[in-house]
Design brief:
CATH architecture of the largest domain: 3-Layer(bba) Sandwich
Helix content: 25-40%
Number of strands: 26
Largest sheet: 9 strands, mixed
Shape: globular
Structural class: alpha+beta
Distance between the termini: 32 Å
Amino acid sequence: MDEVQVLVVGGSLVGLSTAVFLATHGLHPLVVERHAGTAIHPRAAHFQQRTLELYRSVGLEAEILAAAEAEFVQDGAIMSVETLAGRELEWYFRNVNEGIEALTPSRQVFITQRGLEPILRRRAEELGVRLEYSAEVVSLEQDADGVTAVVRARDGGAERRVRASYVVAADGSRSPVRERLGIRLLGHAPFSRSLTIYFRADAKPLLGDRNLSVVYVFNPEVQGFLRFELAADAGFFAVSKAVDAEGRTTSDVAADASEARCVHLVRAALGVPDLPVEIENVQPWNASAEWAERFREGRILLAGDAAHAMPPNGGFGGNTGVHDAHNLAWKLAYVLEGSAGPDLLASYEEERLPVAAFTCEQAYTRYVLRLAPELGTDSIEPLVPDPPIVQGYRYRSGAVVAEDDDGGLYEDPRQPSGRPGTRAAHVFLERDGELASTLDLFGRRFVLLAGPEGEAWADAAAGLPLDAYVVGRDLRDTGEPRGFLESLGLGPAGATLVRPDGFVAWRAADAHPDPGGALRRALARVLAAPARALQAS
């Protein structure tokens, strides 16, 4: 029997990201993907700042930025038109990065999964991940010690058994693993049968000098959004509503996906009735805003679209899945290497399920407000701006030592509080004469950051499995974009403990009479491990 620490079912965006994050922590997972390789269609293309921060933490940001520049003009606008050749209606963002530059050294980018997944695959292979394409997991049986999977080659090859300590199901919105486990979906069931039409057409004269990342189209004949590649001679049109053969507006666009119909819809969006259009591919899909009622069944954990599905409005879907992967990877690594108790894994569902539900609702709100007010605006959640959704969500779990809690789902990352359960804020610090972000300190281990009068905290950290820094001694606070103490909510003698995923686990706003005991108790609680078991590593 083939034995692995972690079996990842699904090798697309989230499965590959999971593998890279696991391998960065020293694990060597097996990834099984039913398709023959990485994505052949553009698919998700909007990657948010937090997601780029996570790829930055594993050394991939620069390569991703270069690949993104080769596919799209960056820093574009999101707006709406009657047709691309016709009247402009509304500008949602003039520049998708405007106003959020100070939140992080990373930025939002547009890159397709077709461009991103090969980068993730190469890094996974470099780190020793085993990738099996054209194969599928046909059964999973778990017991107290692990999971036994049956893997079958899709070309008719022999079946074999794989024994894994844990399984991550990243096998998409119609997840066979989730369905076998009998895990229900909550939220908003499919409300449209949409089409994504991949086409070639010369849109350069229609775009003119406008740098448009996403173009919503609203006219009596068709509604949806357009996205164009760098040369503006190809793109895709995601259609959510159109007029059918009887002259009725319908959300069941996928009922007619003929080539003639698709050419007509693209021309109706571009606003040029006789424009030459070549259809390359057509993908039907159901728009929904749903999340799994639970993200875990014993040793099997759901991630990405298997755990939540949302309409593309806001671009949250793939990003949320990558955040799942990053949250889960360090916890699996700590449990498998014995640095944490198995109960640490309970925090994955405790943290990610509320975030997924909140994000699904926000994507649904955007869908209703922008595309389908007939679904009812009275029952939708109030619209929350993007930064709190992307970087301001809060965790509450056994892996966070909470303070007084107002119960809020998020905070504005432009006004960080430093409270446990929030993302540790970006602050530029000087280290060895070079600028570095606080974010660049996180990723592998726990990190203790102490104020300029907090040397006692750093001394107490000796012998514990973490990195400790005193700002003012080991690092110099530049005050950009905000001061270190203000951003982390600390007094000069205080300290904060940050998890490998960059979220604050615990903090002491000021000095403590027993810093060693306080720090050891906090770390033991977060790791679900006895304090006496903590050792340096």
